[in-house]
Hints:
Elements: H1 6-30, H2 40-43, H3 49-62, H4 68-79, H5 84-93, E1 97-100, E2 103-106, H6 107-120
Antiparallel strand pairs: 1-2
Helix pairs in contact: 3-6, 4-6
Amino acid sequence: MKTLSRRQTLLLGGGLVVVAGGGVGARFLLRKRYAPSAYDDLLVQLDDRDAAAQIGETVLASVEDFEPATMAARLRQRIARRPLSVVSVEDAGAARLVEAGGWVLPETLGLICALAAKAAA
Length: 121
């Protein structure tokens, strides 16, 4: 069994760091970019902003007087730096729901999708 010298160990460790860092960096670089909006702090919670915007268009058809700035402020208070998944479960449990094209969604998710539609416009 051959032992590695200190130099070989450092080179091997450094190579692993570069490979691991490259994987993380590549994922960041290959991620789709969107035009900046005033709602990016909310929209960052969406996995696919384009698909969410399509859902949001349908949600907007059923919501009267949707004012994006007011809605964003309301959603920021409701979310309060928690994951969207947690807030969505709370919405469903409290029967806070919206209908979008025959689908029933937790209200917060539906309204963030509506913001995505407004940001894409």
